[in-house]
Amino acid sequence: MTATTLPPTGLRFDNVDKRYGGLYALRHVSLEIAPGECVVLAGRNGSGKTTLLRIAAQIVLPTAGKLTFPGAAPNTSNGRPGYVGHSTMVYDELSAEENLVLFAKLQKVDNPAARAEDLLREVGLFERRDSLVRTFSRGMRQRIAIARALIHCPSVLLFDEPATGLDPLGITWLANALREMHRAGGTILMSLHGESEISALATRAVHIDAGKIIADTSTGGASLHSVLTFGAA
Amino acid sequence: MSLLSNTSVLLGKELRTEFRSRELLTTTGVFIVIVLVLFSFTVNPGTEEARQFAPGLLWLAILFAASLMFQSCFLREQVNDTLSSLRLAVSDPFSIFLAKLAANTLFLLLTELVMLPIVAVFYNIPVLPDLPVLVLVLFVGSLGIAITGTAISAISAQARMRELLLPLLLLPLLTPVLVVSSIVTAGLLDRNPVVQWKGIAFLGVFDLIFLTALWLFGQYFLEE
After folding, report:
1. In the predicted model, what is the mean pLDDT of residues B29-52?
2. A158–chain B nearest CA distance, Å
3. CA distances (Å), origin A142, targets A90, A93, A178, B109, B169
């Protein structure tokens, strides 16, 4: 996916709260992720994983607390995180190639058309590059969503259940792509349900419940397996 | 430079998606034609009465057409959460507003291009004598409507009662633009046309103030 070495960038949440009206989605979350770590967020539906990832992506502002990216190079395109959420975050009325070129141009990627073409080949959508995204299946949409997040070779990847809709081949491709990003020094934070080929890449797992971190393999007392299967709760 | 290049890229996207779907232009075009043709049956073409009513009707039709446009302006960014991907991609969120604002102004001017011949024919009012000034008035007036509407559209798209909120916030803010635009247009369509430069200057100042406000506070309208 990216042969180059990525600038080492970490992620740090300091006492982060997020409240929607009277409901706390996150409460006093402090988490430090070192550059090059691959962290899996585990937890039940509604536990706060998506909110934490959206705060990390700076799409949502925390109600209290602070988010920082230690080591991030300012004013560089790959200093911005690459984010894959529950929605595809691409335009249905544009083709696969038009979408990728659009986001490449916005993020000042060198030679946007060539980068888009490379990514389309890697995600297996090159043959359908001129088709409008609205004609794509769920799995194809997820592939284009992942390609959009990777277009600027981000140092930090934030993936919210990235395997959704992918077939076994797609999951293997995604696992390989993430492995390559990780090897290049990329920092990965992703939410997953259960163990899979992708969770096998994790160097650390964090269990969230009711907006609080209740287990972290880095602080001991919980294994990756137990956190991913909620057994450590 | 980054602001301008991002704005032009995003404007290209706005135009491409609109000309591909023709969603807004078709709706507003049909709406405007219906309103103007329908009202033409209630007044005698070419009379003093028609001259008095036409400018107000023209701006009323522009207002409703614009409201239709603004309803979906930011709403369609929510379908696939594309507003989030744009915010992640651009360094200055003002470029998102500038692109939408430019697209909305352009779409409004295109619909006005359809309107003018209808007004001229159905109300028997010559629009050619002062056409350059009339185009200027339409431009500054439409720009004012587009700036305010784009901002309110961003705010209301995140609200629960968005269909109600948009006109509720938009109409009071646009009252000065609509009143002045109608008065200046009436002066231009009069038997003895008068160019009211003070009115045109007022519209220009209105545009400038609201554009500055959008530049200063726009990023807060996009936050969740």
Report:
1. 84
2. 12
3. 10, 16, 15, 38, 37
